[in-house]
Amino acid sequence: MPDQEADDSLPSPPHDILQSWKEIAAYLNATERSAQRWEQLEGLPVHRQARSRRAAVYAYKSEIEAWRRRRSEPPAAFQPAPDEPEDLPPPPARPSGRRLAWWAAGAAAALLAGGWMWLGWGRSAEPPALVSAKPLPDWPGLAVSPALSPDGSKIAFGWRTATSAGFALAVADVAGGEPRVLTDSAGNETSPAWSPNGSRLAYCRTAAEEGSRVAEVVILPAEGGPEKVLARVGIPTRFTPWSFGSYLAWTADGSALITPPPERGKGNGLFRIDVETGQAQPLTEPGPGLRDGAPSVSPDGRHLAFLRNLTPIQTDLYALDLQTEGAAPVRLTREGAWAGPPTFTPDSAFVLATTGKFSGARRALALEPSGRRPPVELAGAPENLYALSASRDLSAPRLVGFQGRLDVDLYRAVLEGTDAHIEKLLTMPGVQGMPAISPDGSRIAFESTGGGQPEGLWVANRDGEDARPLVTAIGMLGGPAAWSPDGRTLAASATDAEGQHVYAVNANDGAIRALTAGPERTFPPRWRADGAALLFSTADASLLPQPLSLAYPEGPSESVSREEAVMLEPVGATGAYAMVSNSRDLTLHRDGVSEPLARLYWRHSFQAAGEAVYFLRHNGRRRPPTAEVHDVRTGRSRVLAQLPWVWRGFAVSPDGSAIYFDRLEAESAGLTLLELGR
């Protein structure tokens, strides 16, 4: 975010100045990390005495109060200004600085190619509507990261068939017919993006030997032919083309591509790379620990829309004004959910995207890139819609959408000596995952999403029977819920509009209350042995773990010193603690001595029961995890069972006789054609 400039017209009184982050945070009744995060994400007016992020900071109380008022304005504040007609686009502001030349060229090219955007289909203040939706042909295999051609007649996508080792770039006619494969390599070729005139395709090629973190950006003729490798970019691993569209977008004039960072060590923002010279220019700076991805440029070249990853289970949609030097991205969604890749309507008036739980119910939205009005839901959108890609045809605007669905069920492995009898406990539509077992072993708590039934935290008996929703007023869970030792309360980390927080839920009636607040992210909590407090770690804007906190169900949290831990749980009355690092390393701590135990499958794949620590060991990508136990008294570990591939959950019965986990049963994906109108 650019530094704010003070208004020099009137001197500010001395009592109006806050002269440090500490004073600013105290005035806001927040932590310093919260204030810094608000500056990054929400435009909190903070000044610096030098042009440096490390310079001394100060702020004016009057400006902060004005910022507070803007932040809490009701929806009426989104109405257009009286002097701005709704049926005409606002007059273009004069671009300045380094963005001027290429933005102006892009705007001119867009006008020449498509005519005046507010003629024909028309640039309008009215959001578009979905007129019809029909599935595209169900080609064998899996089609991902779809991109619709500018005229809406063709679709490019990454295609993997039953006989192919990876994804190849393919193009198919929307009207029907078999896809044509344009590429053939040993790696994965996904993330296609059409040039504005439809003559070229850009895509990302991930070489097999380099894994998924580095990709080549390749350009080739849309009908196939000689390729040009433009750059090597670092792939933001929190965004994947399998579910979230393309890593790439063309500028409006076709002279450049918007890409991830051109190489490692260049940050986590988006870059503009000239397709002739390969020169790279940074466009966004998300801040420490955040990542930008899934770019889309409006046909008139004015705006860049993209996703910003706030936590591993939450993304939000942002828009950047490309014609204004130093403009900060505007946050368009605040739903505590997972926004899908954006696309623009052909007239550039609206950004279209989907939002909702990652594996649950989703909505399609139309949003103004200025952020002045609240989002409008598009009625009639298909279920399980993620990525969207729009044509530029003003006479017949259309979208292609990527639909995906997961089916995850709960299982139990009954331990019998060195063997395990595995049985399915619960089968419901959608995802039933991350089980947690009550202290008396009689009930299971789990998350249910995406099956058409109420989404949220559910409970069932230990055999999977009598399943019912406990609380639905809760966001996506960051890990399994934790039962209090008396079985009366469930604690969980879940997303909301600001971040990821700890909640306490009454295990009988579902009454819920938040224990933390603010823009920070909290890791899944565990209970102290006496049940009087919760242990959890909070991440700041850098998403690196901070000292662990104790949160009492009826009071505020206090900090305790546990270095490099994101999760911690006491092991019975042994005085030992099981501790997990940010890199999923599980260690046992007792009497000042640290003992490494294992690299975990997930950070939350461990549980203390009695005087032992049970955990799920990560065995790499080619071998399923193993369930193991470490006896704190003897200091020995042993294997309990070789489990099948686990989805996310792992829990152990209080007596250690059974393991509960979730398993992916099926996944399906398809492409849908959506016609737009007004």
Short description:
By secondary structure, the chain is mainly beta.
Write a structural description:
The protein is mainly beta. It has three domains: 58 residues; 308 residues, Neuraminidase (6 Propeller); 258 residues, 6 Propeller (Neuraminidase). The chain is built from five helices and 50 strands. The longest helix is centred in the N-terminal third of the chain and has 15 residues.
Stated plainly, the CATH topology of the largest domain is called Neuraminidase
Radius of gyration, in Å, reads 26 Å
Helix content percent band: under 10%
Q: Kindly report the oligomeric state of this protein.
A: single chain
Overall number of domains = 3
CATH homology superfamily of the largest domain = TolB, C-terminal domain
Estimate the strand proportion.
35-45%
Q: Please tell me the CATH architecture of the largest domain by its name.
A: 6 Propeller
Query: What's the CATH class of the largest domain, please?
Result: Mainly Beta
The secondary structure category is mainly beta
